[in-house]
Design goal:
This protein is an alpha+beta fold. Helix content is 45%, strand content 12%. It is built from 27 helices and 21 strands. Strand 11, helix 9 and strand 12 (316-318) form a beta-alpha-beta unit. The longest helix is centred in the middle third of the chain and has 33 residues, at 511-543. The chain is elongated and about 100 Å long. The protein starts with 28 loop residues before the first helix and ends in an 18-residue tail after the last helix.
Length: 854
């Protein structure tokens, strides 16, 4: 395989450093065993293992959102099977440099929000600090207990042409990637287990244990198991998978901003059982969005009043709000002198050469060398992207110079660093691609120092552009292997920590998550009924005889029933104003059926129900098992297939596949979920929707006045949609009769598809849901379900199956089914009002006017 390796730096050693070869063209010692293994595998086997890695990640539901990309919503995570490798001696230098750097930044953060000695003594320019949006005056004098204010830190590192490691970025404001690093390692361990063991690759799982212990130690209350939450921006965030994954790995609750509220100076988590006091927040939300009361009042991601709770020391936030000031790239120009001033040491890991334009000489240098530099604003957000001077036209460079000259203190110029090249598997061949590496640091509550993850998240570029290596730019992730010292013991397989607390802690369910689970159950069951009916409709349509009037009349009823069940009006039902259009659809139904099946933008369509099912599942992905995600991943692929169908011919097989996956989804959650609030709400939604769909279908097919032959065909369809045809035949051993059909569909408790069965299950779940009963009385929700149950039990199949003398239709049956669906709407409203809608007390507070005294 090495014969195909493109040695990018060969003959041009001053431009790129190659991670695989030395200057003499020899494979570096720490790569030799690894490359021997790849040579042994050969191209074909390595490609197969790459597929196995990708399959492992896909089955685990590892995704990443690329903003603005047509496939950006939950794009599968891409992992190169060739890692980035660090020798033990090389890593020792990196580790020492990272510890020094985070210690230095920690001291700077303490000074900026404390005594501000560095500002008073002009060691740091005022303009660079106070003009940065990450400097938050509201965070003045707020400190975490202990000497470490920075609990988490990440550094983007790259090796320059001289072989030295350079720091490109400092990340402290909710640094991302450590969850993906662990998932990468888990996938590589499963596919290449012997390679990690034979090469003595250091384990990274202990890093997460250290982080969890540190978070626990920060609790303002003396508790062995404090309530820790991870504050996520939500399911649309680019790294939402990681938030859910870390929630599971660390054993903490994932929450969105709307899940939390501040009352009496404390932060509370809204749960089904009421409010739970929160002790520590691991935030994944940028600090300026954390509290709309004191920062950006447009933010819907944060918690109103959070800063007041932080000031009163009733909750700890990690990393501290206001730390984003340290991500100011202007700091890099001053870190060498600050390191000597504060620590009395030389900076071990140099930053990429940086010129802050707030100084006259530095500004002149940047303006004179604009073509060769990367220009950044001192504040990083989606509106202020890096500008590569060499890519600009002459007029564009002139306009940029004017902007810099107008506000020079807002800009920095940075040297263009030629990243080192490392082996990557591209189209089955080992190629040299530019790569950088993100390393992670956490405070260690036991030692009072900092712990470095012996590994991290590497990324390589798919193009030849040295700077296009980020995930948003389409870069590929790589596992980072740090080899242990030759004298150290052989390391075992990497164990992904799944539970870090031995003492059990109550698994609370945020109300928002409960609502998502409830609607997940409803949309899953709605999709199930829709698929079952569409299979019958397409089957009858394909087999129908245009000359058979009974069959054609039955098809028309089934088409209308499809519209009624899916509520995709006007559809095949229409109104008095569009009779001609409806008749046209009934005569030529294919276009309408294709729309009902594949148009995900049409509310009520099969694709829309499936998409809503997936959206709700993404919002609670920390509550669903890996096996469940494998099923959901398959459903997601099938939605795309359904949307691409322009004819009915290939749809039937897709519907067969879909129903198997939906049944697998239901079965996994029935069998595997613990019988807690999550399971209760998921299945409450399922059973409620099942009653609604069954009632709608019966009302649309079994009420009308039709002849006996058509009635039998319709009864058969309804039984098949409820998977009850075989049960009917075994139970009654007779031809289909309306009384027996209605008895089975409504009143037979032993039938898991009958209305009485569903209502009995709802009754059991309602009894298990949190409710403060008075003297053992039933809750209003339980009362309503009992009333519905009695309504069904008191209905006499002999009576309700009789047609009305005047209309010829089964008016009593129609009236009963109407009452059931109307009552279920009330039940749904009760669930929403009791468990998902919280009346928040008015928050009496004003914007603080804390200003730094300099």
């Amino acid at each position: 395989m090495l014969s195909t390796y493109v040695e990018t730096n060969r003959g041009d050693e001053d431009v790129f450093f190659d991670e695989l070869y030395d200057r003499g063209g020899n494979i570096l010692p720490h790569w030799q065993r690894i490359m021997q293994t790849y040579e042994y595998f050969g191209p074909g086997d390595l490609v197969r293992k790459h597929r196995a890695v990708q399959r492992q990640l896909r089955e685990n539901g590892v995704t990443y959102n690329v903003y603005g990309d047509p496939e950006g919503s939950n794009r599968p995570w891409d992992l190169d099977p060739v890692p980035m490798v660090f020798a033990h001696e090389d890593w020792q230098h990196v580790e020492a440099g990272l510890k020094q750097r985070v210690h230095l930044l920690n001291q700077i953060l303490i000074d900026i929000y404390g005594s501000r000695t560095l500002l008073r003594s002009n060691k740091l320019p005022l303009e660079m600090i106070y003009n940065h949006q990450g400097f938050l005056r509201q965070a003045d004098k707020i400190m975490l207990p202990g000497k470490n204010q920075l609990i988490q830190y990440a550094a983007d590192l790259a090796r320059g042409p001289n072989g030295k490691m350079w720091v490109l970025n400092d990340r402290v404001d909710a640094p991302s990637g450590m969850g993906y690093a662990l998932e990468n390692r888990a996938a590589m361990t499963r596919v290449f287990p012997s390679m990690l063991r034979e090469n003595r690759v250091r384990k990274i799982s202990s890093y997460y244990q250290t982080l969890k212990d540190t978070l626990t130690s920060l609790s303002p209350r003396d508790r062995e198991n404090p309530r820790i939450v991870i504050l996520s921006p939500g399911a649309r965030n680019e790294t939402y998978f990681e938030h859910a994954y870390l929630s599971s790995v660390l054993g903490i609750t994932m929450a969105f901003g709307r899940d939390l509220t501040v009352r009496d100076g404390y932060v509370w988590l809204r749960t089904l059982k009421g409010l739970e006091k929160v002790d520590v927040i691991l935030r994944r939300v940028d600090d300026v969005f954390c509290d709309p009361l004191e920062f950006d009042d447009r933010s819907q991601l944060g918690v109103v009043g959070l800063m007041e709770a932080v000031r009163s020391q009733k909750v700890r936030v990690v990393n501290p709000i206001g730390c984003r000031i340290l991500e100011n790239p202007g700091f890099m120009a001053f870190l060498p002198s600050l390191c000597e001033e504060i620590l009395g040491e030389e900076l071990l890991l140099p930053s990429v050469a940086t010129w802050w334009c707030g100084q006259e000489a530095e500004k002149k240098y940047v303006l004179d060398n604009l073509k060769h530099l990367i220009i950044k604003t001192i504040y990083r957000d989606h509106r202020n992207r890096s500008i590569y001077g060499g890519e600009l036209t002459s007029p564009e460079r002139e306009r940029l110079k004017k902007r810099i000259s107008l506000h020079p203190y807002l800009y920095v110029g940075q040297e263009t660093v030629n990243f080192s090249t490392t082996p990557s598997l591209i189209e089955g061949k080992l190629m040299a691609k530019k790569a950088l590496f993100r390393s992670y640091v956490t405070a260690d509550s036991d030692s009072g120092q900092y712990a470095i993850m012996p590994g991290g998240l590497a990324r390589s570029s798919t193009s030849d552009d040295f700077f296009k290596v980020s995930n948003q730019s389409g870069g590929i992730s790589k596992d980072a292997w740090v080899l242990s010292a030759p004298t150290s013991e052989v390391l075992e397989h990497e164990d992904v920590p799944t539970r870090m607390v031995i003492q059990p802690i109550e698994n609370v369910l945020p109300s928002r998550a409960g609502e998502n689970l409830y609607w997940l159950g409803r949309y899953a069951e709605r999709a199930m009924y829709t698929v079952r009916l569409l299979r019958q409709v397409l089957g009858k349509y394909n087999e129908s005889d245009p000359a058979n009037e009974d069959e054609q009349a039955m098809l028309r009823m089934l088409f209308r029933a499809t519209t009624e069940l899916t509520a995709t009006y006007p559809g095949f039902v229409g109104t008095l104003k569009d009779v001609d259009e409806v008749e046209s659809r009934l005569a030529n139904p294919e276009k309408e059926l294709i729309s009902i099946i594949g148009d995900a933008t049409r509310v009520g369509s099969l694709s829309h129900s499936l998409r809503m099912m997936l959206n709700n599942s993404y919002a609670v992905r920390d509550r669903l098992s890996l096996d469940t995600w494998r099923i959901l991943d398959g459903i997601n692929e099938d939605i795309d297939d359904l949307s691409e169908q322009v004819q009915l011919n290939g749809i039937h097989s897709l519907l067969d596949q879909m129903i198997v996956k939906l049944m697998a989804f239901n079965g996994l959650n029935i069998d595997n979920m613990t019988r807690e609030d999550s399971w209760h709400l998921l299945n409450f939604g399922r059973y409620l929707e099942a009653i609604i769909c069954s009632s709608r279908l019966m009302r649309a097919t079994l009420v009308a006045d039709v002849n006996i032959e058509m009635e039998k065909m319709l009864m058969e369809v309804v039984l098949l949609c409820n998977d009850n045809l075989l049960t009917y035949r075994y139970r009654y051993r007779s031809n289909l009769q309306m009384e027996g059909v209605l008895m089975l569909l409504m009143a037979v408790r032993q039938s898991p598809r009958s209305l009485i069965y569903y209502l009995s299950e709802l009754e059991e779940i309602a009894r298990a849901l949190p409710y403060r009963s008075v003297d053992g009385l039933l809750s209003p929700l339980e009362k309503k379900i009992v009333e519905l149950k009695m309504l069904v039990q008191l209905a006499e199949p002999k009576k309700i199956c009789l047609p009305d003398i005047d209309s010829g239709e089964r008016d009593l049956l129609s009236e009963l089914l109407g009452k059931i669906t109307d009552s279920l709407a009330e039940v749904s409203n009760m669930i929403i009002e009791n468990y998902f809608s919280h009346t928040q007390n008015t928050y009496h507070a004003v914007r603080t006017g804390i200003l730094p005294q300099v």
